[in-house]
Amino acid sequence: MNKYQNYICKRLLILLIPLILLFVKSCGPVKEIAPTPVTPYYTPESVMEQIENNQSEFDWFSARFAGTVMWQNQNHNISGTLRIKKDEAIYISLAPVLGIEIARAIITPDSLKFLNRLESSYYIGHIGFLNSMLNTSFDFEILQALLIGNDFEGYNKDSFVIVEDENHIILHDPERYALKNPHESKSMVFNQYLWIDPTNNRIKKNIINELGLQRSISAEYSNFEQIKDEKIPVKLNLLFSDPSSYADLSLQYMRISLNEPQQMNFSVPSRYEPIDFE
């Protein structure tokens, strides 16, 4: 990679901070919680049923967002638009200065498209590009769930045990895996804790430790608001690190809408150059 390509890659990573952080960069192993005696009233099955009955359900999600990200010991202010067509696509537009878009990304279960307006460049490829570049195993289902505070669809739900504290019910699965590919070598298996708020049966904290790799992510949700028939967390905080790095992403959603079809346009101007990471 020549000096110009290296410069472009560095700028791309800065622009992709919100996207990258939502995929990867995990925190060192989170301190494990010693199981304590629990009230017989709770069972893992009943708690999971309550989570599923109370989590956000929609076909379309749209919101403006604003917040900050701590990345490589530097603070960055971020703002833009998030749109989700459930199970099909995630659209992120970054527009931090006077509403002028500087970057756009569309993620699907198997693809990533990125437009860098500052550098007049673009990338179109497989979603595995981010995982291979940043050495992680996150998939579309995990990203979608983290953005809205839901449990991970398509992952086993029958191995949880309960840990209880004074204010929350805590579910723990030491080896959670994807049902669609549990035996594939690249499938992520993780140690997971879910903090449940018993007042609304929503996830307040989600901690994932990827087994054997010293990577984890902690997601916290607060300020739940009633949007139509759904309770949506308005504030999201994600903590990521691995043995060599640390990142903190804080977002606040505004102007949330549900089940209103949204534009997810992506076109590359003819003068833009493809980004070559080889």
Question: Secondary-structure blueprint of this entry?
Answer:
Elements: H1 3-15, H2 17-23, H3 44-54, E1 60-71, E2 74-85, E3 89-94, E4 103-107, E5 111-116, E6 121-126, H4 128-134, H5 140-148, E7 161-164, E8 169-176, E9 190-197, E10 202-210, E11 215-227, E12 230-242, E13 245-258, E14 273-274
Parallel strand pairs: 6-14
Antiparallel strand pairs: 1-2, 1-13, 2-3, 3-4, 4-5, 5-6, 7-8, 8-9, 9-10, 10-11, 11-12, 12-13
Summed up, the helix count is: 5
State the end-to-end distance. Answer: 7 Å
Derived structural class: alpha+beta
Relative helix content: 10-25%
Q: Calculate Rg over CA atoms.
A: 19 Å
Low-confidence segments: 2-15, 20-31, 36-40
| CATH fold-level label | outer membrane lipoprotein receptor (LolB), chain A
Could you give the order of the helices and strands?
HHHEEEEEEHHEEEEEEEE
Total number of beta strands: 14
Concise account of the structure shown:
The chain has five helices and 14 strands.
3D architecture notes:
The structure is a single chain. The chain is α+β, with helices and mostly antiparallel strands and 278 residues long. The chain has a single domain, classed as outer membrane lipoprotein receptor (LolB), chain A (Clam). The protein is 17% helix and 42% strand. It is built from five helices and 14 strands. A 14-stranded mixed beta sheet has the order 7-8-9-10-11-12-13-1-2-3-4-5-6-14. The longest helix is centred in the first third of the chain and has 13 residues. The termini are close together.
